[in-house]
Write a structure and sequence with these properties.
It comes from Rosistilla carotiformis. The chain is mainly β. It has no helices and 10 strands. It is globular and about 35 Å long. Bound molecules: FE2/S2 (inorganic) cluster (FES). The site of FE2/S2 (inorganic) cluster has 10 residues, from loops.
Length: about 110
Amino acid sequence: MNAAENWTTIAKSEEIEEGIGREFLVGTRIVAVFRVDGQLFAIDGICPHQGGPLADGAVRDGCVTCPWHGWQFELTSGRHTISGRSLAETFPIRNRDGIVELIVADEV
Ligand code: FES
């Protein structure tokens, strides 16, 4: 895959506030985007437990907590903090000249 051809613009950088999740529809996927200590993260926006909105979750210590039943996922890996299993997909994300872009692999 040539990643350079698959970046999708989702927002201006200033639209992603520190510690407040934003939800985006990218292709057919809902993606939750966070900024933590200035760094951007993108994770599947649909909780793998029962479909809760991860963009509405609280972020602490590099993890997002699903607002529905409290499952927690590492923003860097999508790993469930208790089981250690990679349950939530994560996506490459970058800030390029003030524009936030990400790659969703199965975007159509
Ligand atoms: S739907 Fe996310 S923890 Fe249950």
